[in-house]
Amino acid sequence: MPGKPLVSVVLPTYNEAENVAGIIDALERVLTHAGFEYEIVVVDDSSPDLTWVRALEKGSPRVRVLARRVSRDPPLGGGLASAIRVGVLHARGEFVVVMDSDFQHPPEVVPKLVEKALETGADVVIASRYARGGGVEGWSRLRLLMSRAASLLAWVAIPQARATSDPMSGFFLLRRSRVLDTVEAMKPRGFKFLLELLARSPSLRVAEVPYVFRSRAAGRSKLGYRAILDFLVHTALLSPMTRFAVVGLIGTLVNLAVMKAVLGATGLVDAASLAGIEAGLLSNFALNEAWTFREHRRGSLPARLAGYHLASAGGALVTYATMKALHALAGVDPLLGQFTGIIAGFLVNYLASSTAVWRCGVERVEGGGVREAQGRDSLVHQVPPPQDEEEPGARRGPPRR
Ligand code: GDD
Ligand code: MN
After folding, report:
1. Which of 134, 193, 255, 317 has its CA 20 to 30 A from that of 397?
2. Protein residues whose CB sits closer than 6 Å to any atom of ligand 1
3. What's residue 156's pLDDT?
4. Averaged confidence pLDDT in the chain
5. Do 313 and 369 belong together in one domain?
6. Residue 104 alpha carbon to ligand 1 centre in Å
7. Alpha-carbon distance 234 to 242, whole Å?
8. How far is the CA of 265 from the centre of ligand 1 (A)?
9. In the predicted model, what is the mean pLDDT of residues 340-362?
């Protein structure tokens, strides 16, 4: 039997004094029982309730505490996603598990994440509330609805999120060597670390494990309306949909300019309109190739060009059909119908473009197969020597005051 995998568990904490010792104990039990080499990295953001002191008091040789002297306000470097980033950078294991420290993510699931990674060779294993066999405990309908709406938004906005049933999960495993470069380059805002990682990674392989999200053991949630607003802004900035829309606006201008020129030269309305449409399409295609989807140019250029024509034609048809249906069946004003149709058509064009023309999705892996042997080999692990470079603002042990 070769060396056991080294598993690092990253626990971000903010005012979790009542939970932190308990979750560390529970993790130590579970990981020892599963037979893994492990370490636990607590990343605290100067919790006023001195969570980091409670963690240090455990005195466990396998627990490291990074007590960051930061404010939770994003401009000052704090916040959940940035704490996770620092934890992942400091972790030494090839497998890094990120989870909440309030028992909402059951420690018993951690070995299942590792096993899934071994079995599938996946780079990211997501603990999912929405996979078959998963669920949530004690949520109101409203909370459930909001969570599903956020997932839907994530799937539309971030093509890579379509590989998982729970892109908003805060509970996941990362194969450290495969994500390190991306994580280093990230400047996460807000709390959606996983979503940002997926958005920035064109080629990760994702698997998932179902779990039941529990009620909080003690204390209260730190994520309020500010976090929701942050999520919306941040997702829009990361999404190719924003770039796709900008490109579409430029294409509209090109369309009108070419139509005007052809009309002036020939006086032929139909020909001028068609020339404008084609010019707009070509402009959109070129900009999407060079900008929106530059990292996703797979296959042949002529195939993408043809595919983009199809996606746009599909979008135009949907625009027309929506206008017709709203007008004829519901008596909606045709212009308002057309406007609604334009939004629907845009979505169809964008979804088809980001899935089929430029293939942005990350690969979903299931079960064992060829990858298994390779996955296991890369796990033969001696505990690596400690790394000494430190993140600015993060250090081991309690802050000096
Ligand atoms: N270091 C640090 N800094 N930790 C933080 C911060 C921060 O600014 N804010 C929150 N945390 C820690 C908490 O102490 C907890 O361990 C974990 O991050 C999650 O925070 P909660 O306040 O418990 O979040 P939640 O339960 O509302 O949301 C969780 O579930 C969501 C799914 O519904 C998170 O895991 C989300 O990422 C997830 O989307
Ligand atoms: Mn929580």
Report:
1. 193
2. 12-14, 16, 43-45, 72, 78-80, 83, 100-102, 104, 147, 168, 170, 191, 221-223
3. 96
4. 89
5. no
6. 10
7. 11
8. 63
9. 94
